[in-house]
Write a structure and sequence with these properties.
Layout: H1 23-27, H2 29-45, H3 49-66, H4 72-97
Helix pairs in contact: 2-3, 3-4
């Protein structure tokens, strides 16, 4: 399944990709990218920022392939998801380098609400 996404790293290790293929996902692909976004939020909350970023990126690709490009709401949703990709990548880099709190990226830096 992951081979369908050209931006996937070949070294990315999926641990339980069974959530990608289900009868519900095949019946309604919109449910699938929403599910990926929920998983991304869960990984983010757990501090697994790199994994969260990867899930946001897959959700963005799925959205892009199924959305109506003329619908402003879909375009805004895609931009929102891509901002989460960048934010989680920045957090993963911050965590990896073990930088101090002053160097920590914040949501507002990426156009996300600081909620």
């Amino acid at each position: 399944m992951t081979r369908q996404f050209p931006y996937m790293k070949p070294t990315f290790k999926w641990k339980g990709d069974d959530f990608l293929i289900s009868a519900e996902a095949l019946a309604n692909p919109n449910n699938e990218y929403h599910g990926l976004e929920r998983l991304a939020v869960q990984y983010h909350q757990a501090g697994s920022y790199a994994l969260a970023g990867e899930h946001w990126l897959i959700a963005a690709g799925w959205r892009r392939n199924t959305m109506d490009a003329n619908d402003e709401r879909h375009v805004e949703a895609l931009q929102f998801v891509l901002r989460h990709v960048e934010y989680n990548r920045a957090l993963a880099e911050w965590k990896k380098k073990k930088l101090g709190r002053k160097a920590m990226p914040y949501p507002v830096q990426f156009g996300l609400a600081d909620d």
